[in-house]
Give the backbone structure.
Amino acid sequence: MTASSSIAHVESPTERRNPRTTGLDRMSTAELLAAINAEDRTVPDAVRAALPELARAVDAATGALRAGGRVHYVGAGTSGRLAVLDAAELAPTFNIDPDWFVAHHAGGERALRNAVENAEDDADTAAAEVGDAVAPGDVVLGLTASGRTPYVLGALREARRRGATTALVSCNPRVTVGDEVDILVTVDTGPEVIAGSTRMKAGTAQKLVLTAFSTATMVRMGRTYSNLMVSMRATNAKLRGRTLRILREATGGTERDCARALADADGDLKIALVRLLSGAEVTEADAALRRSDGHVRDALAAL
């Protein structure tokens, strides 16, 4: 199913033939890999050009989370799978509520393993899914290489109607948007190595955008100290060892002192960190972190 949209449906550059790879099937293996790599190297520059608008999306997401809202990803095919991956990795990395970031993938869980091609055309299903999940003040980030996937556009339209802030990540610089999109993040990756295969450069670009978006949002939310993962959840031996190393790096303390601080803080890395850096007692460090919404530097300043 499709629904009308004020987003212009224009051909995406990802569908055009790439003049640099027309001889792909006549190349040696080494030449073939070099050609793919040469195209991949253009993606970071394309992402860099989109950073001003991506910053707007990060600030919107930070504001939504601080107000008790959520961030939603919406995508189909490769875009949807990348969105599911990014959302899944945030809870263990930054120790956040899994509901902070919610991924909506056309075709649902089945489409994660097997292509469900017609699912991306169902704008009505997307609108219904979003209608059940999105609240006023949430942020909804749609991802579509072409900029015209009906599932994504239907979700954005319904989200906007329900009072959410909407953003669209597209690799089509010719897309123009209407009222349903507040922020347009355009990453012009050009023609793919294989015409129309957006799992390649467009997919790489979307992975870079998602990683930068979610990581920057987590930093703004105080889930790091310096460049250290001080909010991580130590759920196994490897992560418990990493927690101790992080505490030693952040404080310069001995392994014994850091291990004792972690034990006194019942394994809470942030509390142990604030205690060691400030000299405060566990209860004082905990209270300072609560007052600062978990921002270590703000808690230290308060102490």
User: Anything to note?
Assistant: The beta strands are 71-75, 101-105, 139-143, 165-170, 183-186. The CA atoms of residues 1 and 50 lie 31 Å apart.
